[in-house]
Each structure stands twice: as structure tokens, then as C-alpha cells.
Amino acid sequence: MMPWTGGPSRAASGTPPGWAAGLSPSLPHSRPLSEEEPRASSLPNIPNPFPELCSPSNSPILNSPPGGQGPPREGACHMVKVFSEDGSCRSLEVSAGTTARQLCEMLVQRTHALHDHSWALVELHQHLALERCLEDHESVVEVQSAWPLGADSRFVFRKNFAKYELFKSNSLFPEVMVSSCLEANKSMAHSELIQNFLNSGSCPEVQGFLQLREASRKVWKRFYFSLRRSGLYYSTKGTSKDPRHLQYFADLTESNIYYVTQGKKHYGTPTEFGFCIKPYKVRSGVKGLKLLCSEDEQSRTCWMAAFRLFKYGMQLYRNYQQAQARLSQHPWITPTPLQSVSDSALVAMDFSGCTGRVIENPSEVLTAVLEEAQAWRVSGEHRLGVGPPLSVCAHSAASIHRTQPWFHGRISREDTQQLIGRQGLVDGVFLVRESQRNPKGFVLSLCHLQKVKHYLILPSEEEGRLYFTMDDGQTRFADLIQLVEFHQINRGILPCKLRHYCTCVAL
């Protein structure tokens, strides 16, 4: 029996029991088992049915941040689902670094669509009525990983003829909306103005009035805004740009800009020309969205184009140059001319004499076109050795257009305007559809000056032959294909030539 030394006991001195055994004081001592807690040895040995949940490094559920899908992992394969305009979808397996341009090229090959630079991948948030066209260099997986789990966000594969219009259109940036700290851009050419935007050393601004939705009261109020490289500001005192009156509103580098597709329904916008600045940190819900509204389409287009130029800078211009380079390498794949041609240019030629001459009279042009088309049809019938009955010719002329990508069947005027608006409000974007008011007629819907105009095409018959006309028979065409091809070369009665046709592909 050990003698008692008279020193204090461990309980009295507060010394943990483990110290006597030489354990480090940094290790916590175990909590004693209570009577209600069974010992481990008394539990049956049951195998874990979900072993993957025990490894946080391999668990996508435990690795995902709250409310998101988590950042993409390098080297891993990801599934991306893409929808088309008609609602069909296709799932593709891509890598983390796959860009929007690369994914569009994959879809063009799989759908056997005509390859050109106007195909785009659109990010659509249906519950927020927001959409934007991804830039060619953006990572598809990275954009998808920022979506909230369970939301109805999706990618849509469609044409966007306005994607690079900011580098080509002279009317995109009105002088009244663009200013510079040097006040030197009022007489600048369009190319010089674009270089001014891309040059980080210069400091242009886009300015003008916008309607702002106040989040607290959900009402719209008009303010004078200024968009600079450092961000978007609005003035608290009229049009004053004094630093004391400028209120910081939004950051460019940490946000994306979206079209508001149904502004009056979802947000009560005063006009149909709403757009939204959505910070990266806002994953779901309306809270945190910065909603704005322009007076017209030209103003909205200017604001959104300047936002893209300030945010992406030279990267955006490199995307445009690469798209142009792809067209120059394969010039036969583009359905539209690469360079703009004057609307008044006529290319019809008369080779009946010893030398050719340009036909300048529009009525003579139409006569030559009709004669050439009729001669081509007659020669084709002779080659086949048969002459089809007149009823067969009329039926062919009335239905041959159904095979063309620009023909969209029986869709409404509202759907037509939405379709052309989604694919880009660029001069010359068009489609042909059946008329809802006239059961025998058709409608040519054409975009000009960012507005969609509709022209009625009526069939007429003369001497047993079927013709189509848009001007009460003054100019007549044998079928709709001839009508469209003529106006792709000549303006005729239209405000501009037909340049880009709206088309939809099924995935």
C-alpha cells in the first residue's frame, strides 16, 4: 500500500486526469458516458449504406456551397443541357473549360445547321424574365455552376445577329448619349469611337435618363445616369455630374447585364425596353437586382453595348476578329454578304446585245427577272421531257416555299416580333409567314431601324398563271422564293434589303 504524501488531490487541484499519464494538455479529455448513451461495443456491426457521404472531398453535396452548384472542377466532365426555340433539348458532355463558342460549334455540327458566327448561347432565367447572350470566350460550365439548385434557368441555342453589331453600326452610339472627358469624340468616326471605348487610357461616358426601380417602394423614378469604366452612377440633382451629386449604383466587373423580356408583367416597367444589372452574388430571387428602363430600343441597345465594351474591353474585340476570320477562311458558308452594299444598287444585267449593260430601270429589272425564271423553268421541263399541267405548276408555286428556312408557317404577329427581337433587331432580319387575316396570303416581316414591319403578300392569277405581289400587282413574282431572292439583292418597295433570315433548329 502506497503511503499518502499529503499533496492535493487531482480533483481538488483541477488537474486533468490525463496529465498523470504524460498526455499533452492540448488534447481534450473525453466526456464520460452517461447512463442513457450505449457503449460502442454494444451496437451491432451494420455496414454503412452511403459510404460516399463519409468523404467530404468526394461528395458533390457536401462540397457545394449553399444555394449553388459549386465551382467547376478541372479535368472533370460536366453535363450541359441546351434547349432550342421550339422547346426541344439536347444534353452534351463538356469539359470545365468549354467556351460558349465551342459549344455552339458542337451544336451546329450535330444539328447540321448552316455554320456562321451568328449562332449564340443564351442564358435564360425564366422565373426572373431575364436573358443574355453569352460572350464567345465565357466558360459554359462556370456560368451554369452559378445557377441556384432547382431553378428554371437554362441555355438556349439560337441566332443573334446583333451580337457584334456594335463594331459595325454607325447609329448604335448616338452623339447625344456619348461624351468624353476630353470632349473630343463629337466628330469622331465610328471606328475611332470604338477604339476610344477599348482604349483603357481614354475615359468616354454614356449618359442619359433612365427609369430606376426603387427596391423599397417598388416604384419607378427617373434619374440621369452616367456609365464610366469605374461603374454606373446616377445624379441626385438633375443632370449635374458634380462628384457631390453622383451616387454610385453598380459595378461592372462583378455584374452581368440582362434583357428584361416581360418587364411590365413581372416588374411593372413603364416601357418595354427594360434591362437589369445582376451582381454575381445574387443567385436567386428579385432582391439585389438593379432594374432599369429606357425610353426606346436605341437607348437600351446603347447602354447595353457600352456595358459590354467597358467590362470585356479588348477581349470582346478579339472575339469579333476571330468570328470574322472564320468567315474569311470559309466564305461559302455564310448566307449573307460580308460587306454592306448600298440599298440603291441594282445588279441586273442585260446581255442581249454585243456587250452587257446594267439595267437601271426597276420595272425593266423585274421583267428581266421574271423572263429568266420562266426560261429556267421551261428548260427544266424540256430536260425532263414532260410538261406538268397548269394545276401542278400552281400548286408547286404555292407550296415550294415550305422547304425554306425563312418560312415559319402560321405564327402570330406577336410571336413574330418576339422571335425577330430575340434573334437581333438588326436591319434586314426577316421571315415569311402565313397571314392570319387573309387565308390565302402571306406576310413578310422585316426589321428596320430596330422596329419590325409587316408587308402583306397576296397571290394573284393572270392568264392562268399564279403570281405573288406586295404592291397590288405592280411587281409580280412566280413564287415566294423568287420574291425573297429578288429582295435580297434589290430593295424594291422595302425600306432595306433582306439580309438575315430568322431560323430555328430542333436539337
TrEMBL record:
<feature type="domain" description="SH2">
    <location>
        <begin position="406"/>
        <end position="502"/>
    </location>
</feature>
<dbReference type="InterPro" id="IPR001849">
    <property type="entry name" value="PH_domain"/>
</dbReference>
<keyword id="KW-0597">Phosphoprotein</keyword>
<dbReference type="Pfam" id="PF21989">
    <property type="entry name" value="RA_2"/>
</dbReference>
<dbReference type="InterPro" id="IPR011993">
    <property type="entry name" value="PH-like_dom_sf"/>
</dbReference>
<feature type="compositionally biased region" description="Low complexity">
    <location>
        <begin position="55"/>
        <end position="66"/>
    </location>
</feature>
<protein>
    <submittedName>
        <fullName>Growth factor receptor bound protein 7</fullName>
    </submittedName>
</protein>
<keyword id="KW-0727">SH2 domain</keyword>
<dbReference type="Pfam" id="PF08947">
    <property type="entry name" value="BPS"/>
</dbReference>
<dbReference type="InterPro" id="IPR039664">
    <property type="entry name" value="GRB/APBB1IP"/>
</dbReference>
<dbReference type="GO" id="GO:0007165">
    <property type="term" value="P:signal transduction"/>
</dbReference>
<dbReference type="InterPro" id="IPR046986">
    <property type="entry name" value="GRB7_RA"/>
</dbReference>
<dbReference type="Pfam" id="PF00169">
    <property type="entry name" value="PH"/>
</dbReference>
<feature type="domain" description="Ras-associating">
    <location>
        <begin position="76"/>
        <end position="162"/>
    </location>
</feature>
<comment type="similarity">
    <text>Belongs to the GRB7/10/14 family.</text>
</comment>
<dbReference type="Pfam" id="PF00017">
    <property type="entry name" value="SH2"/>
</dbReference>
<feature type="domain" description="PH">
    <location>
        <begin position="203"/>
        <end position="312"/>
    </location>
</feature>
<dbReference type="InterPro" id="IPR039665">
    <property type="entry name" value="PH_APBB1IP"/>
</dbReference>
<dbReference type="InterPro" id="IPR015042">
    <property type="entry name" value="BPS-dom"/>
</dbReference>
<keyword id="KW-0963">Cytoplasm</keyword>
<dbReference type="InterPro" id="IPR000980">
    <property type="entry name" value="SH2"/>
</dbReference>
<dbReference type="InterPro" id="IPR029071">
    <property type="entry name" value="Ubiquitin-like_domsf"/>
</dbReference>
<dbReference type="InterPro" id="IPR035032">
    <property type="entry name" value="Grb7_SH2"/>
</dbReference>
<dbReference type="InterPro" id="IPR000159">
    <property type="entry name" value="RA_dom"/>
</dbReference>
<feature type="region of interest" description="Disordered">
    <location>
        <begin position="1"/>
        <end position="74"/>
    </location>
</feature>
<dbReference type="InterPro" id="IPR036860">
    <property type="entry name" value="SH2_dom_sf"/>
</dbReference>
<dbReference type="GO" id="GO:0005737">
    <property type="term" value="C:cytoplasm"/>
</dbReference>
